[in-house]
Amino acid sequence: MITLKGAEVSAKIKEQVLAMNGKLGGYVPTAAIVRIGERPDDLSYERNVMKRIAAYGMETKSYVYPADITEEEFFAEFQKINDDEAIDGILLFRPLPKYINEKRAEQMIRPEKDLDGICAVNTAKVFAGEKDGFAPCTAEAVIEVLKAFDIPMEGKRAVIVGRSMVVGRPLSMLMLKENVTVTVCHTKTKDLKAVCREADILVAAAGKAKMLDASFLKEGAVLIDVGINVDENGKLCGDVLWEGLEEKASAATPVPGGVGAVTTAVLAKHLAMAAERKVNR
Ligand code: NDP
Questions:
Q1: CATH of range 137-260; options 3.40.47.10, 3.40.190.10, 3.90.1150.10, 3.40.50.720
Q2: Who contacts 249 (Cβ-Cβ below 8 Å, separation ≥6)?
Q3: ipTM above 0.95, yes or no
Q4: Is the Cα dihedral 36, 39, 40, 44 positive or negative?
Q5: Ligand 1 binding pocket includes 189 (Cβ within 6 Å)
Q6: CA-closest residue to ligand 1 atom 1
Q7: What would the pLDDT profile of 16-71 be if each residue is shown by its tens digit?
Q8: Looking at ligand 1, which atom is closest to the CA of residue 167?
Q9: Looking at the chain, which residues constitute the CATH 3.40.50.720 domain(s)?
Q10: Are the CB atoms for 64 and 81 separated by under 8 Å?
Q11: Which residues make up the CATH 3.40.50.10860 domain(s) of the chain?
Q12: Ligand 1 mean position to 239 CA, how many Å?
Protein backbone atom coordinates (compact mmCIF):
# COMPACT_ATOMS: atom_id res chain seq x y z
CA MET A 1 0.00 0.00 0.00
CA ILE A 2 1.28 3.46 -0.90
CA THR A 3 0.98 6.10 1.80
CA LEU A 4 -0.26 9.28 0.14
CA LYS A 5 1.70 11.86 2.09
CA GLY A 6 0.30 15.37 2.06
CA ALA A 7 3.78 16.90 2.26
CA GLU A 8 4.64 15.53 -1.18
CA VAL A 9 1.50 17.11 -2.64
CA SER A 10 2.16 20.44 -0.91
CA ALA A 11 5.70 20.51 -2.30
CA LYS A 12 4.26 20.29 -5.84
CA ILE A 13 1.69 23.00 -5.11
CA LYS A 14 4.45 25.20 -3.70
CA GLU A 15 6.35 25.00 -7.00
CA GLN A 16 3.22 26.07 -8.88
CA VAL A 17 2.62 28.99 -6.49
CA LEU A 18 6.21 30.21 -6.68
CA ALA A 19 6.03 30.09 -10.49
CA MET A 20 2.76 32.06 -10.50
CA ASN A 21 4.10 34.65 -8.08
CA GLY A 22 7.28 34.98 -10.12
CA LYS A 23 5.19 36.49 -12.90
CA LEU A 24 3.66 39.22 -10.75
CA GLY A 25 6.50 41.72 -11.28
CA GLY A 26 7.41 41.87 -7.60
CA TYR A 27 3.83 42.21 -6.38
CA VAL A 28 3.33 40.28 -3.13
CA PRO A 29 -0.17 38.74 -2.64
CA THR A 30 -1.80 39.41 0.72
CA ALA A 31 -4.52 37.43 2.48
CA ALA A 32 -6.77 38.79 5.22
CA ILE A 33 -7.50 36.32 8.00
CA VAL A 34 -10.72 37.30 9.71
CA ARG A 35 -11.48 35.78 13.09
CA ILE A 36 -13.94 36.49 15.89
CA GLY A 37 -12.97 35.24 19.35
CA GLU A 38 -10.20 32.88 20.41
CA ARG A 39 -11.33 29.30 19.68
CA PRO A 40 -8.28 26.99 20.09
CA ASP A 41 -9.04 25.17 16.79
CA ASP A 42 -9.16 28.49 14.94
CA LEU A 43 -5.89 29.63 16.50
CA SER A 44 -4.06 26.48 15.49
CA TYR A 45 -5.46 26.57 11.92
CA GLU A 46 -4.59 30.28 11.70
CA ARG A 47 -0.97 29.55 12.69
CA ASN A 48 -0.76 26.85 10.01
CA VAL A 49 -2.23 29.15 7.36
CA MET A 50 0.12 32.01 8.26
CA LYS A 51 3.15 29.70 8.21
CA ARG A 52 2.17 28.20 4.87
CA ILE A 53 1.46 31.53 3.16
CA ALA A 54 4.76 32.95 4.44
CA ALA A 55 6.63 29.83 3.27
CA TYR A 56 5.19 30.40 -0.20
CA GLY A 57 6.51 33.99 -0.18
CA MET A 58 3.18 35.78 0.43
CA GLU A 59 1.71 37.84 3.26
CA THR A 60 -1.15 37.64 5.73
CA LYS A 61 -2.90 40.31 7.76
CA SER A 62 -4.94 39.18 10.77
CA TYR A 63 -8.19 40.92 11.65
CA VAL A 64 -9.27 39.69 15.06
CA TYR A 65 -12.45 40.86 16.74
CA PRO A 66 -13.67 40.30 20.30
CA ALA A 67 -16.36 37.64 20.78
CA ASP A 68 -18.78 40.38 21.87
CA ILE A 69 -18.48 42.55 18.73
CA THR A 70 -21.95 43.59 17.56
CA GLU A 71 -23.28 42.31 14.24
CA GLU A 72 -23.32 45.79 12.70
CA GLU A 73 -19.79 46.56 13.88
CA PHE A 74 -18.54 43.28 12.43
CA PHE A 75 -20.18 43.80 9.05
CA ALA A 76 -18.84 47.36 8.84
CA GLU A 77 -15.31 46.01 9.45
CA PHE A 78 -15.80 43.12 7.07
CA GLN A 79 -16.96 45.45 4.32
CA LYS A 80 -13.79 47.52 4.70
CA ILE A 81 -11.60 44.43 4.31
CA ASN A 82 -13.70 43.28 1.36
CA ASP A 83 -13.24 46.65 -0.36
CA ASP A 84 -9.54 47.06 0.50
CA GLU A 85 -7.54 47.03 -2.77
CA ALA A 86 -4.45 45.84 -0.85
CA ILE A 87 -6.21 42.60 0.14
CA ASP A 88 -6.19 39.89 -2.54
CA GLY A 89 -7.98 37.14 -0.65
CA ILE A 90 -10.02 36.61 2.50
CA LEU A 91 -10.24 33.65 4.86
CA LEU A 92 -13.19 34.01 7.22
CA PHE A 93 -13.18 31.66 10.20
CA ARG A 94 -16.50 29.93 10.72
CA PRO A 95 -18.74 29.16 12.43
CA LEU A 96 -19.32 32.79 13.36
CA PRO A 97 -20.95 33.48 16.75
CA LYS A 98 -24.66 32.59 16.54
CA TYR A 99 -25.87 36.20 16.73
CA ILE A 100 -23.97 37.11 13.54
CA ASN A 101 -25.74 36.19 10.31
CA GLU A 102 -23.24 33.84 8.69
CA LYS A 103 -25.21 33.65 5.44
CA ARG A 104 -24.90 37.42 5.11
CA ALA A 105 -21.12 37.20 5.52
CA GLU A 106 -20.93 34.39 2.97
CA GLN A 107 -22.89 36.36 0.42
CA MET A 108 -21.02 39.59 1.09
CA ILE A 109 -17.53 38.27 0.42
CA ARG A 110 -16.31 39.26 -3.04
CA PRO A 111 -16.14 36.14 -5.23
CA GLU A 112 -12.68 37.09 -6.51
CA LYS A 113 -11.36 37.24 -2.90
CA ASP A 114 -13.24 34.22 -1.61
CA LEU A 115 -10.27 31.90 -0.94
CA ASP A 116 -12.33 29.10 0.64
CA GLY A 117 -15.17 29.11 -1.89
CA ILE A 118 -18.01 30.02 0.47
CA CYS A 119 -20.10 32.46 -1.60
CA ALA A 120 -22.96 31.51 -3.92
CA VAL A 121 -21.10 32.62 -7.05
CA ASN A 122 -18.22 30.25 -6.36
CA THR A 123 -20.56 27.43 -5.36
CA ALA A 124 -22.37 27.85 -8.67
CA LYS A 125 -19.10 27.86 -10.62
CA VAL A 126 -17.95 24.68 -8.90
CA PHE A 127 -21.35 23.14 -9.59
CA ALA A 128 -21.11 24.09 -13.27
CA GLY A 129 -17.53 22.81 -13.53
CA GLU A 130 -16.24 26.25 -14.50
CA LYS A 131 -12.54 26.96 -14.25
CA ASP A 132 -12.41 30.33 -12.57
CA GLY A 133 -14.36 29.67 -9.38
CA PHE A 134 -12.79 28.89 -6.01
CA ALA A 135 -13.79 25.53 -4.51
CA PRO A 136 -13.63 24.91 -0.76
CA CYS A 137 -9.94 24.17 -0.09
CA THR A 138 -10.38 20.76 1.56
CA ALA A 139 -12.51 19.41 -1.30
CA GLU A 140 -9.94 20.62 -3.81
CA ALA A 141 -7.12 19.17 -1.67
CA VAL A 142 -8.58 15.70 -2.31
CA ILE A 143 -8.31 16.23 -6.07
CA GLU A 144 -4.77 17.58 -5.66
CA VAL A 145 -3.76 14.41 -3.76
CA LEU A 146 -5.19 12.14 -6.46
CA LYS A 147 -3.52 14.13 -9.24
CA ALA A 148 -0.15 14.43 -7.49
CA PHE A 149 0.07 10.66 -7.14
CA ASP A 150 -1.22 10.03 -10.68
CA ILE A 151 -4.21 8.08 -9.44
CA PRO A 152 -6.54 7.68 -12.42
CA MET A 153 -9.98 9.21 -11.95
CA GLU A 154 -11.67 9.06 -15.35
CA GLY A 155 -14.31 6.35 -15.47
CA LYS A 156 -13.61 5.28 -11.88
CA ARG A 157 -16.28 4.82 -9.26
CA ALA A 158 -15.94 7.04 -6.15
CA VAL A 159 -17.96 6.90 -2.97
CA ILE A 160 -17.87 9.91 -0.66
CA VAL A 161 -19.11 9.47 2.91
CA GLY A 162 -20.34 12.91 3.97
CA ARG A 163 -22.38 15.59 2.19
CA SER A 164 -21.32 18.84 3.88
CA MET A 165 -20.86 22.08 1.95
CA VAL A 166 -17.16 22.13 2.86
CA VAL A 167 -16.22 18.63 1.76
CA GLY A 168 -18.69 16.07 0.36
CA ARG A 169 -20.90 18.18 -1.90
CA PRO A 170 -18.22 20.31 -3.59
CA LEU A 171 -15.95 17.28 -3.89
CA SER A 172 -18.68 15.37 -5.71
CA MET A 173 -18.79 18.19 -8.28
CA LEU A 174 -15.00 18.40 -8.61
CA MET A 175 -14.86 14.64 -9.16
CA LEU A 176 -17.64 14.78 -11.72
CA LYS A 177 -15.53 17.30 -13.62
CA GLU A 178 -12.75 14.68 -13.67
CA ASN A 179 -15.21 12.18 -15.21
CA VAL A 180 -15.52 10.11 -12.03
CA THR A 181 -18.82 8.31 -11.36
CA VAL A 182 -19.72 9.59 -7.89
CA THR A 183 -21.99 8.37 -5.10
CA VAL A 184 -22.47 10.56 -2.01
CA CYS A 185 -23.44 8.87 1.29
CA HIS A 186 -24.85 10.30 4.51
CA THR A 187 -26.52 9.20 7.75
CA LYS A 188 -29.64 7.98 5.92
CA THR A 189 -27.70 5.81 3.46
CA LYS A 190 -28.79 2.17 3.67
CA ASP A 191 -26.10 -0.51 3.89
CA LEU A 192 -23.19 1.90 3.87
CA LYS A 193 -20.65 -0.90 3.84
CA ALA A 194 -22.00 -2.44 0.63
CA VAL A 195 -22.01 0.98 -1.09
CA CYS A 196 -18.45 1.75 0.06
CA ARG A 197 -17.25 -1.62 -1.19
CA GLU A 198 -18.20 -0.60 -4.73
CA ALA A 199 -15.69 2.25 -4.68
CA ASP A 200 -12.43 2.41 -6.60
CA ILE A 201 -11.83 5.60 -4.62
CA LEU A 202 -13.37 5.83 -1.15
CA VAL A 203 -13.45 9.26 0.49
CA ALA A 204 -14.25 9.34 4.19
CA ALA A 205 -15.52 12.76 5.31
CA ALA A 206 -18.00 11.99 8.08
CA GLY A 207 -16.07 13.36 11.05
CA LYS A 208 -16.49 10.19 13.11
CA ALA A 209 -13.32 8.71 14.60
CA LYS A 210 -12.45 5.32 13.10
CA MET A 211 -16.01 4.81 11.89
CA LEU A 212 -14.87 2.84 8.84
CA ASP A 213 -12.32 0.04 8.60
CA ALA A 214 -10.74 -2.18 5.97
CA SER A 215 -13.94 -4.19 5.63
CA PHE A 216 -15.55 -1.14 3.92
CA LEU A 217 -12.94 -1.29 1.15
CA LYS A 218 -12.88 -3.17 -2.10
CA GLU A 219 -9.60 -5.00 -2.73
CA GLY A 220 -7.11 -2.51 -4.19
CA ALA A 221 -9.24 0.59 -3.59
CA VAL A 222 -7.72 4.02 -2.93
CA LEU A 223 -8.69 5.51 0.41
CA ILE A 224 -8.79 9.25 1.04
CA ASP A 225 -9.45 10.01 4.70
CA VAL A 226 -10.54 13.62 5.20
CA GLY A 227 -11.65 13.17 8.81
CA ILE A 228 -9.76 14.94 11.56
CA ASN A 229 -10.91 13.58 14.89
CA VAL A 230 -9.55 12.94 18.36
CA ASP A 231 -9.57 9.32 19.53
CA GLU A 232 -10.16 7.88 23.00
CA ASN A 233 -6.48 8.51 23.87
CA GLY A 234 -6.63 12.15 22.82
CA LYS A 235 -4.67 11.47 19.61
CA LEU A 236 -5.55 12.82 16.15
CA CYS A 237 -7.15 10.19 13.94
CA GLY A 238 -9.16 9.92 10.75
CA ASP A 239 -12.56 8.42 10.00
CA VAL A 240 -10.90 5.14 9.09
CA LEU A 241 -9.08 2.67 11.29
CA TRP A 242 -5.55 2.44 9.84
CA GLU A 243 -4.88 -1.08 11.13
CA GLY A 244 -5.74 -3.69 8.50
CA LEU A 245 -5.63 -1.26 5.56
CA GLU A 246 -2.22 -2.45 4.33
CA GLU A 247 -3.64 -5.72 3.01
CA LYS A 248 -6.71 -4.15 1.41
CA ALA A 249 -6.02 -0.68 0.00
CA SER A 250 -3.66 0.10 -2.86
CA ALA A 251 -3.06 3.59 -1.43
CA ALA A 252 -4.27 5.66 1.52
CA THR A 253 -3.85 9.10 3.06
CA PRO A 254 -2.70 9.11 6.70
CA VAL A 255 -4.18 11.27 9.46
CA PRO A 256 -2.41 13.45 10.40
CA GLY A 257 -0.18 14.22 7.42
CA GLY A 258 -2.62 13.53 4.59
CA VAL A 259 -5.39 15.73 3.19
CA GLY A 260 -5.21 18.14 6.14
CA ALA A 261 -1.63 19.00 5.20
CA VAL A 262 -2.74 19.90 1.66
CA THR A 263 -5.67 22.14 2.59
CA THR A 264 -3.52 25.16 3.52
CA ALA A 265 -1.40 24.64 0.39
CA VAL A 266 -4.59 24.89 -1.71
CA LEU A 267 -5.53 28.03 0.21
CA ALA A 268 -2.14 29.53 -0.64
CA LYS A 269 -2.64 28.55 -4.30
CA HIS A 270 -6.02 30.30 -4.32
CA LEU A 271 -4.35 33.44 -2.93
CA ALA A 272 -1.75 33.35 -5.71
CA MET A 273 -4.54 32.84 -8.29
CA ALA A 274 -6.58 35.74 -6.88
CA ALA A 275 -3.54 38.04 -7.03
CA GLU A 276 -2.65 36.90 -10.56
CA ARG A 277 -6.18 37.67 -11.75
CA LYS A 278 -6.12 41.08 -10.06
CA VAL A 279 -2.76 42.03 -11.55
CA ASN A 280 -3.92 40.92 -15.02
CA ARG A 281 -7.26 42.74 -14.82
P1 NDP B 1 -20.05 17.71 8.91
O2 NDP B 1 -20.34 17.29 10.30
O3 NDP B 1 -20.49 19.05 8.45
O4 NDP B 1 -20.62 16.62 7.90
C5 NDP B 1 -20.46 15.27 8.13
C6 NDP B 1 -21.17 14.49 7.05
O7 NDP B 1 -20.93 13.10 7.30
C8 NDP B 1 -22.67 14.69 7.02
O9 NDP B 1 -23.10 14.79 5.70
C10 NDP B 1 -23.21 13.43 7.69
O11 NDP B 1 -24.47 13.00 7.17
C12 NDP B 1 -22.17 12.41 7.34
N13 NDP B 1 -22.09 11.36 8.36
C14 NDP B 1 -21.82 11.51 9.67
N15 NDP B 1 -21.89 10.32 10.29
C16 NDP B 1 -22.21 9.41 9.36
C17 NDP B 1 -22.46 8.02 9.39
N18 NDP B 1 -22.39 7.33 10.53
N19 NDP B 1 -22.78 7.41 8.22
C20 NDP B 1 -22.86 8.08 7.07
N21 NDP B 1 -22.64 9.42 6.98
C22 NDP B 1 -22.33 10.07 8.12
O23 NDP B 1 -18.45 17.57 8.78
P24 NDP B 1 -17.43 18.26 7.76
O25 NDP B 1 -17.78 17.92 6.36
O26 NDP B 1 -17.24 19.68 8.14
O27 NDP B 1 -16.09 17.51 8.17
C28 NDP B 1 -15.95 16.11 8.00
C29 NDP B 1 -14.61 15.70 8.56
O30 NDP B 1 -13.58 16.33 7.81
C31 NDP B 1 -14.37 16.14 10.01
O32 NDP B 1 -13.62 15.15 10.69
C33 NDP B 1 -13.55 17.38 9.89
O34 NDP B 1 -12.72 17.60 11.01
C35 NDP B 1 -12.74 17.06 8.66
N36 NDP B 1 -12.30 18.26 7.95
C37 NDP B 1 -10.98 18.34 7.61
C38 NDP B 1 -10.51 19.45 7.00
C39 NDP B 1 -9.08 19.50 6.61
O40 NDP B 1 -8.52 18.51 6.22
N41 NDP B 1 -8.43 20.61 6.66
C42 NDP B 1 -11.35 20.62 6.72
C43 NDP B 1 -12.77 20.37 6.96
C44 NDP B 1 -13.19 19.24 7.60
P45 NDP B 1 -25.84 13.88 7.31
O46 NDP B 1 -25.73 14.94 6.26
O47 NDP B 1 -26.91 12.90 7.03
O48 NDP B 1 -25.83 14.42 8.71
A1: 3.40.50.720
A2: 1, 214, 217, 220, 221, 222, 223
A3: yes
A4: negative
A5: yes
A6: 164
A7: 999 999 999 999 999 999 999 999 999 999 999 999 999 999 999 999 999 999 99
A8: 25
A9: 137-260
A10: no
A11: 24-113
A12: 9
